[in-house]
Design a protein that fits this description.
Elements: H1 3-7, H2 14-23, H3 28-41, H4 48-61, H5 63-71, H6 75-86
Helix pairs in contact: 3-4
Length: about 100
């Protein structure tokens, strides 16, 4: 996937390529989409700032989908997602009563 950069005379270091994959949770769809946006922004060599800016672009491009998904959730489901987002590294039991 990253070989397209090299073929076009653009440089994406192995470290930054790995950072992109980690940032996107190794998700193929989002890596491909991210690289499409990034490739079009880079003239010669990818910088960490371009990765950050491109990440924001990808998130913004998915905003309508994320918002549509959230609108279909119940208040309780949103509360659970909020709790997980606030404490993502702590192990907790988020099962809901009656489920």
């Amino acid at each position: 996937m990253f070989s397209g950069f090299r073929g076009a005379g653009k440089a994406l270091s192995r470290d930054l390529g790995e950072q992109v994959c980690d940032l996107l949770g190794q998700h193929p769809y989002y890596i491909r989409k991210f690289c499409f946006f990034l490739f079009n922004r880079v003239e010669r060599s990818v910088t960490p700032e371009q990765i950050s800016d491109t990440y924001r672009m990808v998130l913004e491009s998915e905003r309508a989908l994320f918002e549509a998904l959230i609108r279909r959730l119940t208040v309780t489901q949103i509360a659970v997602l909020t709790a997980i987002a606030k404490e993502p590294t702590k192990k907790r039991d988020y099962r809901l009563e009656g489920n």
